[in-house]
Task: inverse folding
């Protein structure tokens, strides 16, 4: 009887050992990407228990969810986990199916690592659905949860990711206020972005538009002058040049507008032509952009410094950081399998991992190409707007000449600004700009130009 | 009645064919004594009412004026992953 009992026990243990899923074995060996692949293969046609879902979350903690973007939605939705809801909800947001996006984004656990990012997207969903109250609530929850996750982050990179989420939530709230015409509220939100933030140089242009809409052209021009600082010389936006020219135009300072226009045509346009030419030759390349981002392209000559700066900007994106990290982890896993596993297992596991790595490289290449071309597309648009502005200025100057009039500020008596023309709050202090940019002053500049829009008749010289 | 009408028509046709060719000749030289010419009316100086100022046609070019940052929001969200 004892022997029988022992036999049954031994058989039971054996079957339990045999039933241990392969993905768990891979997970123990820290073959995370192999485990993820195996997980879906082994579980998709079986009942999905809480234990299975928790295991998926455990694997995704190491691999991230980016890799699931190409997976079939029906397969993903078999696993009711927060990570899966996040990736599916995000996809519906991108497809502009806002109501469906909400059903998934609204059901992510508040302690989950993707909760802040989900709230960031949810705020935009609510904005598009026109529910301001829920939008503001989502922004508040995004900011608070991101701050908590940042403080608990295990390393600097993760902390930076949460900091970025927090800032983008504030910026998006400002942008939504701007769309609704709530300009003061937009400024309040923009001012929550510290000058040390990676997003801050981008926010300057947006703030300048807010001041433009408030008819504070001097402040808009002052903000845009920040881009002339040597610290920000890698940030160049055709839109900023256009807005400067437009603000001068609104102040009827036509000659200043023309200076901006000439500068744009002389300095920026040849650079964009250069960029267009260089990228045209690599338009169909599946590796050039990836290689350029990972510093594998050498030989950008001095004319192409401009292009190099664009790639430097792209490298600062979270997306690139995540994808590049995935490639690093995949390489590590491949090397480990190659070094420790049998030839048979190597043949079974390595081709899939190599495919995943190539997919991620293609994704990086595609995204960089898309970003560069989207940037390039703004160039002809703003060039055309500047050309229209140029025509209008010439027409207005001609009209003044025909009417024997001139604008109120005499060129000879004109001063380049007075404090009386600067709009400021009681908390703001001003010093004169004396040709030097000081880091703590960046983004706080204002010009003090008087509007030149009043016409006076030209007196005949005796 | 028909006979009368026929006769009248024949008479008219005869007149039409019988017209002589008219040659118009214009004066080759004519002298005007402008000093002697008199124009009847009142002599007035042009004033504000008689000279009407007209503004030049203005073409309102529709300059780009940003009203939203929706494309920026999309870019930022996509830049995360």
Result:
């Amino acid at each position: 009887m004892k022997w029988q009992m022992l036999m049954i026990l031994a058989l039971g243990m054996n079957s339990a050992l045999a039933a241990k899923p392969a993905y768990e074995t891979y997970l123990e060996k820290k073959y995370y990407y192999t485990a993820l692949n195996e997980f879906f293969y082994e579980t998709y046609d079986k009942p999905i228990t809480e234990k299975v879902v928790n295991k998926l979350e455990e694997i995704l903690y190491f691999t991230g969810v980016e890799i699931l973007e190409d997976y079939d939605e029906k397969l993903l939705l078999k696993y009711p986990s927060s990570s899966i809801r996040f990736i599916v909800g995000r996809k519906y947001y991108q497809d502009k199916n806002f109501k469906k996006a909400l059903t998934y984004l609204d059901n992510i656990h508040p302690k989950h690592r993707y909760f802040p990012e989900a709230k960031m997207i949810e705020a935009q969903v609510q904005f598009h659905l026109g529910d301001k109250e829920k939008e503001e609530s989502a922004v508040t929850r995004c900011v608070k949860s991101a701050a908590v996750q940042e403080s608990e982050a295990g390393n600097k990179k993760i902390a930076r990711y949460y900091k970025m989420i927090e800032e983008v939530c504030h910026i998006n709230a400002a942008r939504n206020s701007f769309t609704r015409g709530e300009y003061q509220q937009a400024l309040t939100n923009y001012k929550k972005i510290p000058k040390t933030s990676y997003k801050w140089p981008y926010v300057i242009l947006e703030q300048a538009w807010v001041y433009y809409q408030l008819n504070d052209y001097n402040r808009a021009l002052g903000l845009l002058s920040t881009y002339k600082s040597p610290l920000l010389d890698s940030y160049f936006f055709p839109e900023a040049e256009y807005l400067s020219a437009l603000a001068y135009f609104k102040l009827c300072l036509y000659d200043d507008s023309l200076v901006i226009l000439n500068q744009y045509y002389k300095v920026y346009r040849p650079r964009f032509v250069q960029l267009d030419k260089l990228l045209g030759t690599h338009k169909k390349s599946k590796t050039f952009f990836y290689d350029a981002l990972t510093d594998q392209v050498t030989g950008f000559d001095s004319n192409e410094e401009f292009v190099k700066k664009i790639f430097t900007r792209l490298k600062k994106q979270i997306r690139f950081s995540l994808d590049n990290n995935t490639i690093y982890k995949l390489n590590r896993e491949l090397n480990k399998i190659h070094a420790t596993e049998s030839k048979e297992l190597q043949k079974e596991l390595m081709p899939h991992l190599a495919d995943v790595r190539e997919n991620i490289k293609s994704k990086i290449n595609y995204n960089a190409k898309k970003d560069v071309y989207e940037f390039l597309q703004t160039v002809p648009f703003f060039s055309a707007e500047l050309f229209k502005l140029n025509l209008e200025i010439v027409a207005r100057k001609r009209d003044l000449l025909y009417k024997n009039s001139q604008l109120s500020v005499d060129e000879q008596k004109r001063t380049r600004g007075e404090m009386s023309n600067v709009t400021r709050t009681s908390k703001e202090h001003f010093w004169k700009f004396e040709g030097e940019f000081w880091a703590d002053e960046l983004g706080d500049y204002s010009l003090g130009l008087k509007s030149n829009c009043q016409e006076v008749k030209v007196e005949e010289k005796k | 009645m028909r006979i009368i009408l026929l006769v009248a028509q024949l008479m008219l046709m005869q007149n039409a064919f019988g017209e002589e060719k008219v040659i118009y000749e214009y004066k080759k030289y004519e002298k005007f004594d402008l000093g002697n010419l008199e124009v009847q009316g009142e002599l007035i100086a042009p004033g504000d009412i008689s000279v009407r100022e007209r503004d030049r046609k203005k073409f309102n070019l529709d300059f780009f004026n940003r009203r939203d940052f929706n494309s920026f929001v999309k870019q930022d969200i996509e830049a995360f992953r």
Summary: The mean pLDDT of chain B is 77. Residues 2-18 of chain B form the longest helix (17 residues). The helical segments of chain B are 2-18, 70-78. DSSP finds two helices and no strands in chain B.
